[in-house]
Each structure stands twice: as C-alpha cells, then as structure tokens.
Design goal:
alpha+beta; Rossmann fold; 9-stranded mixed β-sheet; 5-stranded antiparallel β-sheet; 22 helices; 24 strands; 37% helix
Amino acid sequence: MGKILSKQRQGVRDTYDPNSFSLHRDPRDIFIPDFYIPFLNSLLDGCNPRNILTFGSGSPEISEFALQRYPDADVHYLPTHREDAERIQDAFCRDCHLIDLTFLESDDLPQAFDLVIGRLMVELYSKDKTPLLPEDIRDLGPNRPIFHIIHSALRLNEDGIGIYAVTSYFFFRNHWKEIVNLFKDLGLTITAAFHIPSGMDPRNPAFRYLILVQKKPSDALFIAELGKDPESYPYIISNYRTHKKGKIASLGAWVSPTEFVSFPLYAETERIHAFAKRMNARIVRLSELGKHIGPDRESKYGNSEFVFIPRNPKGLAELRSDIPMIRYRDFLKFDFNPALITGEYLVNYFNSDHGRRQRSALAIGASRPQLFGHELMQVHVVFPNLSIQQRVNEVTNKITQLSSFLEKLDVSVWDDPGNTNEVEHTLDRLLEFDSLERWNETLPFPLSSVLYRYTISTSPRDRANWLVKFYEAVAAFQVILLLSGLCSRGECMADVFEKEGLRLRGSLDIAGFGTWVALSKALRKSIRRKINSTEEGVRDYYFSLFGNPSQAFMDMLLSDKIDSVFYPAVAIRNDWDAHGGIVPVRKYRENVEILEEKLRTIRSIIRDNFREATLVLPGSSWFSEGVFRYTVKVLAGSRPPFKETECVTTSPMDTRYMYLIHAGQETPLQILPLLQMRETPTSEREACYFYNRLESLGEHAGEIRLITYHYGESPAQYIESDEIKKYLEIFRT
C-alpha cells in the first residue's frame, strides 16, 4: 500500500497515505473530502472485493484508491460528465475501466459487484440529454439520485456492499418510508446511515449522509456521526458489525428505519432524555399534545389562542389568537390540548435552547432551512405536570419583564446622555443580587484572576491599572479563542484572513493591547461574514470549528459592543500609563469611573456564558470503545485550587494544552499555546501566561516572551517554542 502506483501527470509525484488520500491535481477535478478514505479503510477492513464500481463526484480518486488497495480488482467508473471523462482518466486512473453512460443496461459489466461507491446529486445523462431512468420507478419524484443507487445496488452480489452519499432530503417525510418499502420489495436493505457534519465535505456540502446498501434483511438501521477524528471510525464500524450501541450517540445506535428523521435530532433527543431524567419529568412527542392545523381551522379543544411556530428555526414561537393571513406562510399553527399542557409553557419550550436545537435539526433546506408540519410533530417535549409548567411560566415571565425593563433603561440613557445618575442607581440595585465577586468566579481563570486583583485593591491607581490589565486580558483571551477555532482545521485560516487580515500580517510578532484589539475587530468581522453566509453548511461548519458552542456563546464572542470597552481602555493606557508622565490622584479617580462603567458593559456581554463553556486542563484518562474519559481541572474562578471533574470526549486531549468544552458536546477545542498554565519561576504557584512577543534582540533573542498578570515577582518568562513560532509564521504569511 506504501507508494502510489505509477499514476503521474505533468511530472507530479504523489505519495499514498492510506489515512489521508487526496489528489487535487486540477482545480476542475471534483475531489473527495479528507475523511472519506479513512472511513473507507475502516469499513472495508477484512474485505477483498474483486469487482468494483464507482460513479459520481470524486469517483476518479475513489477508483484510484480502490486500485491501490485492491491491485488485482477490476475497477469500473462512471464520471458525472462525459466530456471530462478522458481528461480525468488520464489524470487519475488509467488502469480503470471507463464505462459507457448506458451502464445500467450494459451486458459487458460484471453481473455482480462486490463494492459500489456512489456520490451523485445530479442525473447521469446520455448523449441526447435524456435521463437514463427506467419508467417503472419514475414516480419517486424529488429523490432522483435514488434511481442510480437502486440500479447499481441491484448489481451487488449477495455479500456485496454499496456506499452512497446522499443529502438530508433522502430521509424527508414519507419519501423515506417509500424508499424503505421499495428497497425491501427489490431485495435491498439500507443497513446504516453515517451522518456527515457540516464542513466535513466542503466541495459538496449538500452531502450529509453516507448510507450502506446490502442484499440482506434487517429490521434496524445503524446511525452514527463521522466526526473530524478518524480514530473513532474503527469503533463506529465495530459497533455496526457487532450490533452494539456506542457509549455516546456519535459512536452509533440502532433505530427503527421508518422512525428515523435525522441524526442531529436523534442526538438532541438523547440529550433531552438525559435532561428529563435529571428533572424526573416525562418526554412526549408533540403529536401527543395536540394537532398541527390549517390557518382557517377551529380549535378541536375549544382554545381561543394557538401556538404559532415559525418555519424559520431561528424565529420565536408566539401564543396568540390569530395572525394576519399574509404571515401564515411563515408560521405553523398548533392546537394544543389544555388538559395536558399550557400554551404558554409550549411557547417557552420552543424558544428555549432545547426547542431551538430540535427545530434546527428538523428544518429542511440549504440556504433557507424551513420547518414543516410533519417534522414539527416529531419534536420531543419535556413534559412536567401542570403545576410545574405554571411555575416555569411565572419565572420565564419575570425574566421577560426584566429584559424589557433593561431595554427601556438603555433607551432612557440615550434620551438624556448627560443625566445617567438615575439609571446607574437602578442598575446598581439590580446588580446587588448578582455581585461582581460572584460573577467573577464564573469566569475562566485567565480573566477571573486579573479582575480579582481589582476587587481587592483600594487605591485609585491600583484599581485603574488592574481594570486596564483585565480589559487587555479579555482582548487577548478573545483573540486566542478565535484563532484556536480557526486553526482547529487549518484550511479556513487563509480564507478568513483573505480580506481583513492582510493589513495585520506580522502583527503578532509584538502583541500589545492595541494589537489584540485590532486583531479582535478584524477576526470578528470576517467570521461574522462567514457565519451569516447563505451558502449551505457554512454556518454549521464555523460553529463546529469552535466545538459547537451555543448561539449565545458565539454572539458573545463576536459582539461588536466590546469595542466600546476596548477603545477607551486603550486610550487610558496609552495616555496615562504607557506614554504619560506623573498622573495625579484626581485623574486616576476619573479613569476608575470610566473603566468601572465599562465593566458593566463587559458583564452585559459575557453574562453567564462561561457556565456552559468550561476551560479545562486534562489530567489522567482512560479509553474504552471509542470514548475517552478524562479527569480534568476546571480552570474557573480567581485562584487555585481548581475543582476536578470527569468529562467524556470523542478525541484525545494533550495534557500540555488547555481546552474549551461546551455543555452537551464531546469535541473539545484545543487552545493555542499562546495561552499557557505554568508554574512561576520563583515558586510552585500556578499562573496563566499570555503570549507577548518574539524577542529579536538581547540575551533572549529568538525566544518567546510570555507575561502573566497574577504575581508581581515574576511577570515574564522566556521560553523556546517552535510550535508558537510555527503559528507566528502562519499568521505572518
């Protein structure tokens, strides 16, 4: 398997790596994603197919992979476009059999294939542009690629396997049930559906599943998720072959084929069941609590109000008697049974994180995902008794009233900017219930430890200096989080820096407060542009880079309100600290007032988002059946010792790095070594060190300077780090 066979073009020589196979010789050639070959290696382990068929996008590369893995096999392939066939064959697989477009009717092909691999979203056309589809199954409508799946799968031998990439539409509504029944009538079975997370197939983002088709009966469907860590694939395949359920949802489960809707919905439902178990509450489907009805239908239960759920999964549900007819196309009308559930509770549930995630998992569509009535009925609802529902409604109403009150305060500030005393007093009374000290203990240690020094300082000078240092730490921490996400799959770094980053090249060689602020603004702008893209899968892909955080966490990380904190703090630092002369006490008091006002803004941005996003330092671990279990230190609060807890991940963590883990997620985000936990040189106390600069002069030339705000006796350390230099070179070029 070592070196690639003699498939060379224009003097290019490539090396075959069985776990990372990608030959991108010509930008016109459609290629396969990086996860594809590691998955095929795991799935086909122990197999020895003799006759292989590939078709659709990426088939030349897959064919060449098949030739290298099975050099004695006969490989037939069918490209998407005939006019490119000879060029692609010359580039990729001269030893493959390029077959005629009428392959479905050809007697020259083997009557039985051992392996078929297809990746097709569009029709295969003959020379006269007529689809090569048999008349007897034309009525399947939107599932056009199903024709090619069926006809190639019918050529499988009894032990053969077909592997096909399909879109989420494949499992849409009753079409999926029709497909299951049709396959059964034809002697075929879809035995597995492997979910492809957004961003894993960047050239073909519409492909969301790999399905397995075989000629063997099965009453259950295996589902799993192909994450970015190929080391989990053998465990997924092992669970599939041994008919076991994985220890976590992504490693596999067996479900009823006709009840399957989507893997994200299954994973979210598993989380909801765990949540309900902790609450000692029931879980029911929405269909058990009422009916989806048409716009002109009356209530079956005598309700005067209905729950209106927006088709856009990002929208808010409403409880009202009716909506204008022109808006009905944007909403689904639900008639609830008041003997079981209150409409107010149902609205609050749909607008909660649980409800939003389920709606997103059920939405259909690429650029504008939409929720349909049939899918809506699949939502699982946490179903406490009516008294608990009422208490939840009361608390939610109080939160809503408080939010409305704060919005009115914000408006009143701008009605009379010169007179904000009353607003400040009101906010101070509100914040008494959530003291600064208590909120600070929820922050990650790199930030909390700095703000703690402010809270215990008494002189105006010290309080002003510690607040400036805190805002600088916030800017550095924010940029390091953003860069860590972008570097978690390095291919997107250049894409993000394409516009905003050009003027910032090399800026991290010396990273001061101003540098962190400029980088923060540039990165936030670029990432927001990507997340707001209407291109299918882009938003989910960027969320996956950061470990699949909540929407609230990403809103915090990308908020432009933070600029109103950074810029005044930078100005104070430059005018009165870095470049100023002797500062009178009166000026320090004025600066403290300004900086403390900005502290309220910081609190309104960060809120309690770090209660659901935990910074950890991994310790001991053990591994079993594809799951890593770690004992980790939770780096939260102002000072050691840190709480220890256990967590489960699907990928290994290195004890040299910190990681950010979001609630309900098993994929940790590795933090770049620009932020490190280290012992101070003069003691064994732990401190957090931020990257500061690459020294170019003096006795430490060529070394990395790290600084800490924790202990005054050793504010800087100089280290050798080829890894940090590697990242600096990436940012520089």
